[in-house]
Amino acid sequence: MKLSLALLAATAATSSAFTVGPQAFNVASRAPSSSSALHASRAADKIASRSQWAEARGYTADAAGASAAGLLTNDDGLEYVKLVHPDTGATSEVYLFGGVVTSYIDGEGTEFIAVRPDAKMDGSKPISGGLSHCWPQFGPGEIQQHGFARNVAWTVKSMTDTSVELEMAPSDYTKEMWDKEFLCTFTVTLEDDQLTTKMNVDNKGEESFDFQAALHSYFTVSALDNLEIAGSFEGKEFLNKLAGDGGEMQTEERSVLTIGEEYDRVYTGVNDPVLKDKGTGKSLSILNTAGWEDTVLWNPYGDEGMGYNNFVCVESVKFDSVSLDGGASWTGDMALKPAALEE
User: What is the residue-averaged pLDDT of the chain?
Assistant: First the structure.
């Protein structure tokens, strides 16, 4: 199921990764509190920030104030796991439908993960936004766009207040389009200073199979003018899917990227992006330590209806197909680590 850069370029004009809806994002984040702020004031700020985030996504006031970890159900009947760190107060939410992380709020109340305001949270279609799975295919190809992992129900294998392990196995639905003996597990862990994820693919059969994988990740930003994306981009070739007639290969000359135009770019061999947001006063390091070798940047610049100014997609990708022998496994490790911007 390998999808070459040339093939992707040929289909770029008609296949963008996701279509963002007509409403703009409501970014629930704030600048870091000063070290002299009173504890009570900081706690009130956290509650207000999380309430704003919840209300923007249609949750009730009771749900916005809920602090307990566990398996919960949203207003549309979808189950999700809420993780709460007992020391920092950081939280995360992971939906069973699609196995998608829809929220990561650090201990200071800053939300880092974006979910589109037009997202369907009732299971009628894949959840638009979050850390969305593209598996076993990234983009167009032999089966449906981005595969099926994002629109099937994963099951809870194990969970604690700070970690959940989800599992996806073959079903009649998946076998109709991709009849392979696989087992996927996705583990999300809320640590005191970061959110870690682990995607594991096991070949449970005797015959090998090929797959692609990606976390199609939406991140909140205060405004694109406030955003810089650092990493090992300089000197690397990338596919600019919006250049020329259907896309062309280019070489990145910048060491720090800013977004001032529409973006849909595949950076192969780059997996160390860092988002720096002057508006929130924070950075977010995307730590791809295993499996994820490439980065895709996407933003529909200038489209007010899409809310382009308050999000950026920085995707962790294994673009070249993995050929997995019978009995073998593949792992993708990615962590999100916030920090204060250095002066």
Answer: 85
* Rounded CA separation 117/240 (Å): 27
Residue 47 pLDDT more than 50? no
Q: What is the pLDDT of residue 52?
A: 52
Q: What's the rounded Cα separation, in Å, for the pair 157 and 155?
A: 6
Cβ atoms within 10 Å, residue 11: 15
Q: Report the 3 state secondary structure along the chain.
A: CCCCHHHHHHHHHHCCCCCCCCCCCCCCCCCCCCCCCCHHHHHHHHHHHHHHHHHHCCCCHHHHHCCCCEEEECCCCCEEEEEECCCCCCEEEEECECCEEEEEECCCCCECECECCCCCCCCCCCCCECEEEEECCCCCCCCCCCECHHHCECEEEEECCCEEEEEECCCHHHHHHCCCCEEEEEEEEECCCCEEEEEEEEECCCCCEEEEEEEEEEEECCCHHHEEEECCCCCCEEEECCCCCCCEEEECCCCEECCCCCEEEEECCCCCCEEEECCCCEEEEEEEEECCCEEEEEECCCCHHHCHHHEEEEEEEEEEEEEECCCCEEEEEEEEEEEECCC
pLDDT tens figures, 296-307: 999 989 977 777
Q: How far apart are CA 75 and CA 68, in angstroms?
A: 17
The first and second tokens of residue 153, run together, are 């129900």
* Cβ–Cβ < 8 Å for 276, 230: yes
- Nearest-CA neighbor of 46 among 129, 101, 105, 117? 105
Per-residue pLDDT tens over the stretch 306-340: 778 989 999 999 999 999 999 999 999 999 999 99
Residue 86: CB atoms within 10 A of its CB come to: 11
